[in-house]
Amino acid sequence: MNVLNFVNAFFSDGAHWHGYDGIPQRLLEHVRYSLLALALAAAIGLPVGLLTGHTGRGGNALAFIATAARALPSFGLLVLIVILMGFGLLPVMIPLVVLAVPPILVTTYEAVRSVDPSPVDAARGMGMRESRILFQVELPVALPLILSGLRSAAVQIVSTATIAAYVSLGGLGRYIVDGLYQRDYEKVVGGATLVAVLALVTLAVFWAAGRLAVSPGVRRR
Amino acid sequence: MNGFFDIPSDLQHSWWGLIGLHLREALLPVLAGLLLALPLAQLCVRVRWLYPPVLGLTTVLYAVPSLAFFVVLIDYTGQTELTVMIPLAVYSLVVLVPAIVDGVRSVPEETLAAAKAMGFGPVRRYVQVQLPIAVPAILAGLRVATVSSISLVSVGTLIGNQGALGNLLADAQKYDRPELAVNSVITTAVLAVLCDAALVLARNLLTPWMPRGTRTRPRRAGRRELPEAEKAAR
């Protein structure tokens, strides 16, 4: 297998394991971009999703915003912003956040909306304030779904963060873009393998987070 | 903006030509993905143990960045449209298989039993009962696949100007004409929204039995279920 040979050659080359273009350094950069983008997207998507889900209002506006954001091409947006703003970290973060907000926003909204209304009514009957209802009743029950929205956003960010390399930043996309221009397929395949593995690790992290954070009573159902 | 529709001649297409090219490069793979996904999904529904490994494999494939996919394929298919279309077909397949499997599995047992009692064979039961009932789920998957496919075609510009409207992005940098990049982003986004709207319309036409009100799910129904689009995107 051609591709497997490439993968083997890439990872067994000692020169790929240290220095500023080494795998640990590029991996670290990639993780840093991905975490920053996910944090920004979550900071936008989670509060809005929780609030609209709790009040049950604005669902149509939310669906419209999500569709519009999904329609924007990440790569085109990146090139456009770089042309307008110049190079830097911010032009990379904007397309990644635009990419990640819709799944987080829509899933969080749907998750809170679809919580069984009887415990919510019971909590209200017990005199809980609205904020406590949201955080102590609705949030724990909706958590598995909210996590799945974050997970799908995270995987998309990890895979798309490769475009950062196109505008001269680091990350695992460096191998793919450099390999493209150097006609060095070994590098491209190695970079792609690393990104795919990182995406799988992301899935595993969210699975573990689900095991830890979701209350057993919710999980059992 | 001046020269907004003034497409550089190195692209060898007019603006409308680029749109046609873009739609072809984006939609043919989705169609191919759908044609491959239908039998594969049916296999996964029939042979239950096959579904988890297929789901795992598709997740891995989905995580491969599009650019890497393109570059690796250059070795086999050259710098052609096909090199852009094959990965897009794979991504569509990845989105559609879970959507179709979940849709077909969600058909109630009683409905299947009723079809069987009416003398439907497996083929007729699949075509006339299971598929129509799964239409909302399948169309939700198609929407995600179509919109992401339209957006990803632009990346093809990096492998020798195979990105249709995305080629405007390369030219915007080459000739220092930002308005071309604006044109590219806006046109691509509008195409995506229009195709999305067409699919919503198709769903409404294909599911005449669904009352309008229930499409946006009432609060009580569908507990602990992913919203259709995110489920498909998983």
Automatic annotation (TrEMBL), chain A:
- Per the record, the domain of life is Bacteria
Q: Which InterPro entries does the entry link to?
A: ABC_transp_perm/SBD, MetI-like, MetI-like_sf
Q: What is its main location?
A: membrane
Record membrane topology: Multi-pass membrane protein
Q: Name one Pfam family in it.
A: BPD_transp_1
Q: Where are the transmembrane segments?
A: 33-51, 157-177, 189-209
Q: Which UniProt keywords apply?
A: Membrane, Transmembrane, Transmembrane helix, Transport
Places the protein is found: Cell membrane; Membrane
Share an example GO biological-process annotation for this protein: glycine betaine transport
Cite a GO CC annotation. Answer: plasma membrane
* All residue ranges annotated as the ABC transmembrane type-1 domain in the record: 27-206
Protein family per UniProt: Belongs to the binding-protein-dependent transport system permease family.
Q: What is this protein called?
A: ABC transporter permease
Q: Which organism is it from?
A: Streptomyces griseicoloratus
From TrEMBL, chain B:
Please report the stretch or stretches of sequence annotated as the ABC transmembrane type-1 domain: 19-203
Alphabetic keyword roster: Membrane, Transmembrane, Transmembrane helix, Transport
Q: Where in the cell is it found?
A: Cell membrane; Membrane
Q: Which PROSITE patterns match?
A: ABC_TM1
Origin, by domain of life?
Bacteria
In the record, the note on similarity to other proteins reads: Belongs to the binding-protein-dependent transport system permease family.
What's the name of the protein? ABC transporter permease subunit
Source organism per UniProt: Streptomyces griseicoloratus
